Amino acid sequence: MNILVSACLLGISCRYDGRGGTCEELQRLAERHHLIPVCPECYGGLPTPRPPAEILPEDGESGIRVVTRDGADVTAQYIKGGQAAVELAAFFHCTVAILKSRSPACGHGRIHDGGFAGGMRDGDGVAARMLIERGLRILNETQTEEIRRL
Ligand code: SF4
After folding, report:
1. How is 121-133 classified by DSSP, letter by letter?
2. Which of 35, 99, 103, 126 is the best mutation target for the ligand 1 pocket, counting ligand atoms within 8 Å of the beta carbon and taking the most?
3. Fewer CB within a 10 Å sphere, N or C end of the chain?
4. CA atoms lying within 13 Å on the CB side of residue 94
5. CB of 119 within 8 A of CB of 140?
């Protein structure tokens, strides 16, 4: 099957700090499934490298507000990137996505708390939330047992 995957887990250097990584479990998964890379932050039009961003705990007009450490509001870019991820998932008929943990775009279950001090809270990144709303099952790269069972 086609599985949507955060591009920075597939060796693409698209993280905010200009880095990326590889994940052994995903390399094995690529032998059995087609992995479709997506970087919602890049698809939203943000440059690489870029200032780190976090989702503020209070809701904005659209139900979410994302700001950089410098205070710039990048909510629109995160929503645009999330929409691109949803479109890609629909185009490739993906029912599962494996997304980078803790990211304000890709994180699922636990994300940074908006204080830019390393704190965490329950919640989903913008793209992860939009994909969940479309019915996708979301895993992150630390869920190796679940990935092995795909
Ligand atoms: Fe990785 Fe997702 Fe951040 Fe892009 S938006 S760098 S894919 S965690």
Report:
1. EE---HHHHHHHH
2. 103
3. N
4. 28
5. no
CA distance 98 to 72: 28
Ligand 1 near 101 CB (within 6 A): no
Using CA positions, which residue lies closest to atom 1 of ligand 1? 8
User: What size, in residues, is the chain?
Assistant: 150
Give the residue, by CA position, lying nearest to ligand 1 atom 4.
39
What tokens does 10 get? 């597939």
- Three-state DSSP class for 61? coil
Report the SS3 class of residue 29.
helix
Q: How far apart are CA 101 and CA 84, in angstroms?
A: 19
CB of 53 closer than 8 Å to CB of 66? yes
pTM attached to this predicted model: 0.95
The atom of ligand 1 lying closest to the CA of 107 is 8
- For residue 147, the 8-state DSSP code is H
For residue 26, the SS3 value is helix
Our CA angle for 111, 130, 143, nearest 5°, is 50
Condensed to tens digits (0 to 9), the pLDDT of residues 96-147 reads 999 999 999 999 999 999 999 999 999 999 999 999 999 999 999 999 999 9
